[in-house]
């Protein structure tokens, strides 16, 4: 799989590309390439710049796979990708895709770039297309609008360890039928002693993952769109929540999927 530096090498090579003429939203060669994926003359091109960067790494197949072979002209598609594949991280990191909203209406995002570096003061430097009619470095900081950072599964990004097939199976089968879809509920999960991995297998669906204290206090945790076979890192979610050692895991799916839960000693 391609690395973050592979993608950033392409991004750096684009710096200085300028619209011709200014204000036309035509930027060679980015928009020339984007035509075959649906770009039309006059469309904004910041998202096409990010797509171009992934599609033009030394190994283009590997680079394209990092954005699931889905080049796009809309910044919000990268946020959706991050949500769907559990790629959103809380802070900027080198190689992350930075999806931005400036008008306070996050239902429609406004801009996107890729993080080249992170500064000691918490600000970061993006390489962005369609900024002042060109591709350029832009320094961003917290407070300059809303940001969603999506970290593709670069070859150097460690993926959390997953249980082996014979590790601690607690449940495997369909979710429990409820009025609003399929529901899985498992009592007595212990965050101090075990790591928990929840797996879903099935068509695209929306999961509502909740953790509950034994005293009934609800901690709403996560809503995500998933499809196919995906593992969900429950211990990472539990570590962020101010709860005691024991908790209840509840997962509701909008459509029926197969579910399983594994418990692995720490």
Structure notes:
The model has no long low-confidence stretch (mean pLDDT 84). The chain is built from six helices and 13 strands. The protein starts with a helix and ends with a strand. The protein has two domains: 4-150, endopeptidase domain like (from Nostoc punctiforme) (endopeptidase fold (from Nostoc punctiforme), Alpha-Beta Complex), CATH 3.90.1720; 169-265, Sandwich (Hypothetical Protein Tm1070, Chain: A), CATH 2.60.290.11. It is α+β, with helices and mostly antiparallel strands and 266 residues long. Helix 1 crosses helix 3 (46-55) and helix 3 (46-55) crosses helix 4. A hairpin with a 5-residue loop joins strand 3 and strand 4. Strands 7, 8, 9, 10, 11, 12 and 13 form a seven-stranded antiparallel sheet that branches. Strands 1-6-2-3-4-5 form a six-stranded antiparallel sheet.
Topology record:
Layout: H1 4-14, H2 30-34, H3 46-55, H4 60-66, H5 76-84, E1 88-89, E2 97-101, E3 111-118, E4 124-131, E5 134-140, E6 146-150, E7 169-174, E8 176-178, E9 181-190, E10 194-213, E11 218-233, H6 234-239, E12 246-253, E13 258-265
Antiparallel strand pairs: 1-6, 2-3, 2-6, 3-4, 4-5, 7-13, 8-9, 9-12, 10-11, 10-12, 10-13
Helix pairs in contact: 1-3, 3-4
Terminal CA distance: 30 Å
Q: In percent, how much strand structure appears in the residues?
A: 35-45%
CATH H-level superfamily of the largest domain: endopeptidase domain like (from Nostoc punctiforme)
Rg, alpha carbons: 21 Å
**Class computed from helices, strands and strand pairing:** alpha+beta
CATH A-level architecture of the largest domain: Alpha-Beta Complex
Number of strands: 13
CATH class placement of the largest domain: Alpha Beta
At CATH level 3, the topology of the largest domain is: endopeptidase fold (from Nostoc punctiforme)
The count of helical stretches stands at: 6
Mean pLDDT: 84
Number of domains: 2
Helix content: 10-25%
Please give the largest β-sheet: 7 strands, antiparallel
The coarse overall form would be elongated
Order of helices and strands: HHHHHEEEEEEEEEEEHEE
């Amino acid at each position: 799989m391609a690395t973050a530096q592979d993608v950033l090498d392409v991004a750096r090579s684009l710096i200085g590309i300028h619209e011709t003429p200014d204000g036309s939203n035509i930027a060679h060669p980015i928009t020339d390439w984007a035509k075959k994926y649906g770009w039309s003359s006059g469309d904004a091109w910041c998202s096409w710049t990010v797509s171009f960067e992934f599609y033009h790494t030394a190994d283009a197949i590997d680079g394209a796979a990092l954005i699931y072979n889905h080049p796009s002209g809309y910044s919000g598609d990268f946020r959706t990708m991050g949500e769907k594949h559990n790629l959103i991280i809380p802070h900027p990191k080198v190689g992350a895709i930075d999806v931005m909203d400036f008008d306070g209406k996050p239902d429609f995002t406004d801009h996107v770039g890729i993080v080249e570096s992170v500064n000691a003061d918490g600000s970061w430097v993006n390489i962005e297309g369609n900024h002042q009619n060109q591709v350029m470095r832009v320094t961003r900081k917290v407070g300059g609008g809303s940001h969603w950072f999506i970290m593709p599964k670069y070859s150097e990004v460690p993926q959390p360890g997953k249980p082996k097939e014979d590790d601690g199976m607690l449940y495997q089968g369909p979710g429990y039928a409820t009025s609003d879809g399929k529901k899985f509920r498992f009592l007595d999960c212990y965050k101090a002693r075990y790591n928990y991995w929840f797996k879903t297998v099935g068509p695209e669906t929306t999961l509502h993952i909740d953790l509950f204290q034994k005293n009934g206090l609800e901690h709403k945790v996560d809503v995500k769109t998933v499809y196919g076979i995906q593992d969900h890192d429950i211990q990472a979610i539990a570590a962020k929540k101010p709860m005691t050692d024991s908790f209840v895991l509840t997962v509701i799916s909008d459509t029926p999927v197969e579910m399983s839960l594994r418990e692995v000693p720490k």
